[in-house]
From TrEMBL:
Official protein name in the record: G8 domain-containing protein
Region named Disordered: 25-45, 539-560
Localization annotation: Cell membrane
Species the sequence originates in: Deinococcus hohokamensis
Residues covered by the G8 domain: 53-170
Compositional bias ranges of the Pro residues kind: 32-42
Keywords: Cell membrane, Glycoprotein, Membrane, Signal
Cleavable signal peptide: 1-30
Length: 830
């Protein structure tokens, strides 16, 4: 009955596991090819655990390491004494009898089958699988300590079908003891529940205990500490529902560590590998995951390939010291209708980026904590400092009807690597997550956290994240293939301190969204992207339950950033370009004595480019909301100084084709009308983006820009480098541009709206430089020098030089979107 494993098997498995557990470096050993498997014979008889004959004469005793008889199905008809280990060989099976049972063991290794109930006949009694740690530091077949390991075997855990979660029908006030629900639950006295925060603070998520149930009313055993909101209103044709979710944590089948795990953080973990399958439902996983340890997660589907026959559904995971459900190198798996509570680090985690075809549906993820050093917790990945409810490394999955509530980080994080990392790197060179079409993102909810949806910040091989553009195309290996626009549909976000949604990329749309009570509703760091057919609400009647230390808003309501109380609430922020907001209803953006608010604004404290052709169209204002507010430009932030957008149809300004601008270079024109409440002006004319850079990498900033009326601004450039500068300009006007230092090779351009756009510029130069248009394409595109009086008659193919001033006329040519010039101190540019 020994569990000593062959050295070769242990070595192979250790190699297979070495790259798992976060986005580990691509240099990790690749998974070896699985050895050929020989189908094990089916069990031939049912033996009873309590029968000495099953064991050759003596029933296992406390502290014994047990191996089931080969080729036999054993019925666990008694709760055995605590074991040192249990092995179920290939061809053997252990099945729980249909009554209350407890199985305690240091570890369990399943090569055959472990069964509690069946899909057709769920287990009706109480089944407890408790993993102990009397012998610390074991490493069972390379799969660690305190493990329920399934290697080439089958795990069948089927608890009773119960209502996994629902929502409040009425607000539950602080101090109350009754929850009125939208559905009548089949819960029972003694059951524990998670009740989600409906304020900004994730810590207002509560764990409560059922005292009794009557219809749709649940009486609790103790009063609530916080108020939990429940209200649905219809605005602009959209149902805006801010209702606390209530999830069931108790299940009649349970996998856990013994009580000592609460102090050690060494929880139980379940690992499914090789050719294994797992069908897990109605099961509670508590005191699970192992603190600060890679590869030791509550439930871990590891390198299984396609798994359409496996699932993880209607379970609960709580008191986890390390993640919730990890899908690694596994495809076509169903993770559905589960409830999680009080877990550390990314919760539902797609690991490397080659995980596709998985269905994440109807899950309720609550109270996801970032690692806390005071509790001895360290991040497995740098990104765990912004823990995500759903960490999604490949877009080709279905993410539908989930809730991320009370997350100390991000609700849904599309953290797309360029190629799969970790073990996935070995075969992932042909996989391009950042260019892969979106599967489905529909009907998901994020509330009570930091950022609800983040499509940005993808990981490198070492797990460090950086800005990552998502640009889905029809052939991901070919970035020039046809675009496949990604539409994130039916999304609801509320009470997010930072953003309801942030998306970076190209051809991205957020449609049918309802974004309310957020610091900022949505921002697109994107191109050809935007928000449409949606609802934005600044503040609702959900005032929250602010903590005593928090600065409060009017009426005592909670603020998204109490440490930055005057942060201006905005619905949609313009940034990058071209981006748009169209066919959107807005309400509840009312300035107060504490902070400003507006339906539309721009990304503040922004050093980067804005496109003045970003536009608003078909906006519906449902009340007297402030339409626009541009905060004063922050020091050395060129994006603030360029803030301009186009009101395409007049649904913001009342005049179609007008632009709203905060730029000192633009708002002083005679055809501009100042709007002091907006801290901006509404202007006629057409606007484009001017840019300048030192190609040699020199520091030429700050750069002064002055218009013909004498208004000027100083551009600091892209942070730190001071070699790239951009701002908004008016088409047809003249500007004087003066760098702080000379350059041997300048490049400048006009990113226009359409062919024929013209801009006049003057720059100081020394000597007689050579000027080229698109010289890197054809160095013969050298401009001719003409008298200044003749420059206006040219088509941008000439320049004038007088008294050390270079005079230019930039013209966007037919078939082009920009006019670009190089100014070189030698006959040819370097």
């Amino acid at each position: 009955m020994s569990t000593r494993l062959p050295l070769l098997a242990t070595t192979l498995l250790s190699l297979l596991l070495s790259g798992c557990g976060g986005n580990t470096p691509a240099t990790s050993p690749a998974a070896p090819a699985s050895p050929p498997t020989v189908p094990a014979p089916a069990p031939t008889a049912s033996l009873r655990w309590s029968d000495p004959a099953t064991w050759g004469g003596a029933v296992p005793v406390t502290g014994q390491s047990v191996t089931l008889p080969a080729g036999q199905r054993v019925l666990l008809d008694v709760s055995p004494p605590a074991l040192a280990g249990l092995t179920i060989p290939a061809g053997s099976a252990l099945e729980f009898a249909r009554h209350d049972l407890t199985l305690k063991s240091e570890w369990i290794m399943v090569h055959g089958e472990l069964r509690v109930g069946s899909e057709a006949q769920p287990f009706a009694g109480r089944a407890d699988i408790i993993l102990t740690d009397a012998t610390p530091g074991e490493n069972v077949m390379g799969m660690g300590d305190r493990v329920l390991a399934v290697m080439d075997g089958t795990l069948e855990l089927h608890g009773q079908s119960r209502l996994a979660w629902t929502r409040l029908a009425q607000t539950a006030p602080a101090g109350g003891t009754t929850l009125n629900l939208e559905q009548a639950p089949d819960w029972a006295p003694g059951d524990t529940l998670t009740l989600t925060s409906t304020d900004f603070n994730p810590a207002q998520t509560e764990q409560v205990t059922v005292q009794r149930v009557s219809g749709m009313a649940v009486t609790l055993s103790a009063p609530l500490k916080y108020s939990h909101w429940a209200q649905t209103t219809t605005l602009g044709g959209f149902a805006l529902s801010e209702r606390a979710e209530v999830g069931l944590l108790t299940r009649n089948v349970r996998v856990s560590a013994s009580d000592d795990a609460a102090a050690s953080g060494l929880g139980a973990h379940t690992m499914i590998m090789g050719t294994a399958q797992a069908r897990i439902e109605g099961t509670e996983f508590v005191r699970v995951g192992q603190r600060n340890v890679l590869r030791r997660y509550p439930v871990h589907f590891h390198q299984l390939g396609s798994q359409p026959a496996s699932y993880f559904r209607s379970n609960s995971v709580h008191e986890s010291y390390n993640r919730c459900v990890v899908i690694h190198g596994t495809r076509d798996l169903a993770v559905q209708n589960n409830v999680t509570f009080n877990t550390v680090g990314h919760c539902i985690f797609l690991e490397d980026g080659d995980e596709t075809g998985n269905r994440l549906e109807g899950n309720l993820v609550t109270l996801v904590r970032r690692p806390n050093a005071k509790l001895g917790e360290t991040p497995l990945l740098p990104s765990d400092k912004r823990a995500a409810a759903f960490w999604l490394t490949n877009p080709a999955n279905t993410v539908r009807g989930n809730v991320a509530a009370g997350v100390e980080g991000v609700g849904f994080w599309y953290a797309l690597p360029e190629h799969p990392t970790g073990l996935g790197a070995a075969t992932g060179a042909t996989i391009w997550p950042r260019r892969t079409p979106l599967g489905t993102f529909d009907g998901n909810v994020a509330h009570s956290g930091d950022r609800g949806l983040d499509v940005d910040n993808g990981p490198d091989a070492d797990g460090v994240t950086h800005a990552a553009s998502y640009d889905p195309v029809s052939v991901p290996a070919d970035p020039k293939s046809a675009a496949v626009p990604a539409d994130f549909t039916g999304y609801l976000a509320y009470k997010q301190r930072d953003h309801g949604a942030w998306l970076r990329g190209e051809n991205l749309t957020l449609s049918g969204a309802r974004l309310a009570d957020n610091g900022v509703g949505a921002t697109f760091a994107a191109h050809q992207s935007g928000l449409r057919d949606s609802l934005l609400v600044g503040e609702t009647a959900n005032t929250g339950t602010p903590e005593n230390w928090e600065t409060k808003g009017e009426g005592g309501r909670s603020l998204p950033r109490p440490w930055d109380a005057d942060f201006p609430v905005r619905g949609y922020q313009f940034y990058d370009g071209l981006v748009r907001i169209e066919n959107v209803a807005l309400a509840g953006f009312v300035p107060s004595a504490v902070r400003q608010a507006s339906g539309v604004g721009y990304l503040t404290e922004n050093a980067f480019a804005l496109n003045p052709q970003n536009q608003a169209r078909a906006l519906q204002w449902l009340d007297a909301s402030a339409r626009v507010y541009f905060p004063a430009a922050a020091a050395n932030k060129d994006g603030d100084l360029a803030a301009t957008f186009l009101d395409a149809d007049g649904s913001v300004t009342g005049q179609a084709g007008r632009s709203v601008t905060a730029s000192p270079l633009l708002r002083d024109a005679p055809d501009c009308a100042a709007s002091p409440a907006w801290n901006a002006s509404v202007c006629a004319g057409q606007y484009a983006r001017f840019w300048l850079e030192d190609v040699t990498g020199g520091r030429i900033g700050p750069v002064a820009v002055q218009n013909s009326r004498g208004a000027r601004l100083s551009l600091a450039g892209v942070p730190d480098a001071q070699k790239h500068f951009t701002t908004s300009v008016r088409v047809g006007e003249t500007y004087a541009v003066t760098p702080s230092a000379a350059s041997g090779h300048l490049r400048l351009g006009l990113l226009g709206r359409s062919p024929g756009d013209v801009l006049r510029l003057t720059l100081p130069v020394s000597g007689d430089p050579a000027l080229y248009r698109d010289w890197w394409i054809d160095e013969r595109n050298r401009l001719k020098k003409v008298p200044l009086s003749a420059l206006d008659a040219t088509t941008g193919d000439s320049y004038a030089l007088e008294a050390g001033q270079l005079h230019l006329k930039l013209v966007v040519k037919p078939g082009a979107q920009a006019a670009t010039l190089d100014i070189c101190g030698a006959p040819l540019c370097p």
